[in-house]
Amino acid sequence: MTLLEKILTAHSKSKIVQPGDIVDIEIDARVARDFGGANVVRNIREHGLNIDNPEKTLFTFDCNPTGSDQKYAVNQHICRLFAREYGIKVFDIDAGIGTHILIDEGYVGPGSTAVSTDSHANILGAVGAFGQGMGDMDIAASWHKGKIWFKVPGSVKMLLNGDLPEGVSAKDIILNLLGIFGAYFLLGYSIEMYGQSVDRLTLDERITISSMATEMGAVIILFPPTREIIDYCSKRSKHTFKPVYADTDASYDKKIDIDVTKFRIMVSRPGEPHDTVSVSEAGGQKIDSAFIGSCTNGRMEDMHKAAVILNGKKVAPGVVLKIVPATDQVWKKCLAEGLIEIFKQSGALVSNAGCAGCASGQVGQNGPGEITISTGNRNFPGKQGKGSVYLASPETVAASAIAGFITTPDKIPTHPAVFEKPVQQTGKNDLESVKRSKVEKPEIIKGRIWLIPGDNIDTDIIFHNRYLAVTEMKEMGKYTFDNLKGFEDFSKKALPGDIVVAGKNFGSGSSRQQAVDCFISLGIAGIIAESFGAIYERNAINAALPVIICKSIKELDPVEGDIIKINLKTGEMVNLRNQKNTSAEPFPDVQFEIYMNGGLFG
Question: CB–CB of 71/42 below 8 Å?
């Protein structure tokens, strides 16, 4: 078996698992954040559920550690009250990013399993553990049962051969890989990393790479744990763990050899993390702001790299540099080692530990027209604000902040570019209880279609993060696609029973349930796509929203407004205008059962 298959087998009743199997897996760490946490609590209370094991159940408040938003404050306190009632540990606003805490505080080690409302829970692949982001219903179910169903993905063995060129960092490795494979070539796979270059990677570097598995469409990027990783986790572990390695005769769907000697220092251009180019192609682009931090590059090694470049230098006039350590432990080390002083002397803003720009509740957001270079993992339109975001390594970001334009440390000019741009930030949040209604579900659905152009329609396009605190389902519908050009009025024109037709990797990005619930709010009968983001597909299945995978949808010659009929059980599909037909993937028994049941908790 592969590395992931062995982890899942060890946490299930199965003696062996293979791709396509659906198994219940025991979860070692079950986590809800301040984003999504209140909905987890609501699900627990509304369905009269108890908590399987409070010692394995956690809250982590990392989206809004500043307490700067009233609605987030309400969310957080709902979670605190629930935690007191059930004896659940809360890593509160002073702790930092939850996925990092799981490693550093010993809740997860090699061979462990964890789920979180964070779509980047697959960071745990850095220590050879299984981590998965899930929606609020999944998390509530895992809190109650201690386990959750999971479909075993296919595995890819990737070998990174050769020595990295001078200056190429871990962030550059994953940006190069994104440039090679895009957002869906490896969609739904578990990727195992091997090779001499991999063996030399530190924990912090592995975290950087694993944290962007989601942006590649992968379920997880797993690293076989080294002796150093095992020792690090053993010193902190709250539970015994057993490192897991793939069998020598493991069967992989794909085996890929990569020559890293050709890797370059890279940036992702605004809009899509996989739209990567050599830094030389983007060099000279003026910036308004820079950001160092996030779950991808907020570790101590990242802080050291930034400090070396910033030491004794000043951020360019008119440029704002924001630095956010991943955890409070990193923040304290920065203070003890004098890095905070270096950052402040350079003119940077240093915030308390947390997710920062990826969430609207902390520093890192940008305004309309603002150009930012960031060490984050996502640069979807609107994800980090209304401006444009380039992704890069901490070294490139620090050098660019000093220069005033995108560059590398060896090309920082004597005199920086000087310019000023206005910054504007907006946000709106709300919190109310949500009631999911149960209705009789038809096996055959029929409806008018909406053709959504393009691939990789992510959750920020479907339901923008400025509405994340909206939890009343009837209010969600009006925000559907309001971040998609040409479809801003979708919610006013869509009718109950309509069907959305999209391309590849629909619903990529965040784990937010609202990106599913907004369609339910409008009465959308289903979504047809060539493929779906893994977390989005789970959320839709659990909410009983039909998501239909059809790679041959073009055979129907669909045009806007056609009426399509689909048999969910058999996959038969017909366009009633021209009577052309094709076949979609029929619902698996689990999906069909949840659908007919009205949802996971039906």
Answer: no
Q: Is 444-596 in the same CATH topology as 270-411?
A: no
Return the CATH number of the domain spanning residue range 444-596: 3.20.19.10
Burial of 238 (0-12, 13-18, 19+ CB in 10 A): middle
Per-residue pLDDT tens over the stretch 434-446? 444 445 689 999 9
Q: How far apart are CA 330 and CA 340, in angstroms?
A: 11
| Top CATH class, 270-411 | alpha beta
In angstroms, rounded to a whole number, what is the distance separating the alpha carbons of residues 81 and 437?
27
pLDDT tens sequence across 49-88:
999 999 999 999 998 887 677 778 889 999 999 999 999 9
Instruction: Indicate the DSSP class of residue 286.
Output: B
Using CA atoms in the order 545, 5, 119, 596, what is the torsion angle rounded to 10 degrees?
A: 10
Tokens 């000093």 belong to residue: 402
Digit-coded pLDDT (tens) for 529-583: 999 999 999 999 999 999 999 999 999 999 999 999 999 999 999 999 999 999 9
CATH number of 3-262: 3.30.499.10
Q: Which residues pair with 391 in a beta bridge?
A: 268, 374
Judge contact between 124 and 526, C-beta under 8 A: no
pTM for the model? 0.85
Of residues 382, 383, 423, 375, the one with CA closest to residue 401: 375
